[in-house]
Amino acid sequence: SVIFAMFFTLAGAHFDLGVIKTAGILAAVIILARFAGKFVGVRVGASISHASPEIKKYLSFGLFPKAGVTIGLAMLIKECQAFSNIASIMINAILASVIINEIIAPPLTKYMIFKVGEAGRRE
């Protein structure tokens, strides 16, 4: 939609390749911490709910995509005076993590759907 195109264009305009070296480390931490949280959360939730082993093993791959809300929150950082010294690094780290997630998330989601046996299934 046009709104999404404008939203992502605005976010991309704030992306600064000059700080990507510093922001890249933070982006990697964000990605790894987020995936670890999803992985642990799925394991705990699946154990509590007695979900199938396939769900317990693969569901975290389907929870990896993110974008819209994350970018919106990142843009708010720029307006907050408390973060004025590090806003550029934070915004670029968050945008880099979104870009990486949007590249790797669809194949991971497809992998998960096939591994749990839901692909091609009709009810």
TrEMBL record:
InterPro entries the record matches: Na+/solute_symporter_sf (IPR038770)
Keyword terms: Membrane, Transmembrane, Transmembrane helix
Entry's transmembrane regions: 25-46, 58-77, 83-105
Protein name: Cation/H+ exchanger domain-containing protein
Gene source species: marine sediment metagenome
